[in-house]
Design goal:
Shape: elongated
Low-confidence stretches: none
Number of domains: 2
Number of helices: 4
Strand content: 35-45%
Mean pLDDT: 87
Largest sheet: 5 strands, mixed
Oligomer: single chain
Radius of gyration: 24 Å
């Protein structure tokens, strides 16, 4: 886990937080990607003059997704700049969606869920292997990037006949 010890940060004024998200991490279960290599995290935590905690740094690594058209493997380099801002409730005011609550009396903050959110938002949900991907044939399932399909022409699905009739009007 990637944690900021607020007592240690109080003494040092700046704290370096390093860690990794491993491929078997349950934190990213159900996301649209899997890890090709562990994601490395390097952050600096500092106190702002007004009592807020600022955490800045980056997450780098490589993930794997499936092309949404042909289902081929797509590898994507991850290089995300991260800035997290934590503020006490008296400074927070209205919820702006970008500042997190720094609860009173807490001595340690686990950054993992906040970093998970940043990573998931930075990686597109739908990947494409290339811009001109032809996808799969709807009839036979052949990958049209690799070969021609073997479907017989004119085998139109009769369920679309009503729409074709409207098109001819």
């Amino acid at each position: 886990m990637l944690k900021v010890d607020l007592g240690d940060l109080e003494r040092r004024r700046t704290l370096r937080v390093e860690g990794r998200f491993e491929a078997d991490s349950d934190l990213f279960e159900g996301s649209s990607f899997t890890f090709e290599e562990p994601l490395r995290v390097l952050l600096n935590a500092t106190w702002a003059g007004s009592g807020e905690l600022v955490v800045r740094g980056g997450v780098v690594g490589k993930v794997r997704q499936q092309c949404r058209l042909c289902l081929d493997r797509v590898e994507r380099r991850v290089d995300i700049d991260v800035t997290l801002l934590f503020a006490p409730s008296d400074l927070l005011g209205e919820d702006d969606g970008e500042t997190y609550l720094l609860e009173t009396g807490v001595r340690e903050i686990d950054l993992s869920p906040y970093l998970r959110e940043e990573v998931i938002l930075a990686i597109p949900s739908f990947a494409e292997c290339r811009v001109d991907c032809s996808g799969l044939c709807a009839g036979c399932g052949e990958n049209l990037n690799e070969s021609e399909c073997t479907c017989s022409p004119g085998g139109a699905d009769p369920r679309w006949d009503a729409l074709r009739a409207l098109e001819k009007k």
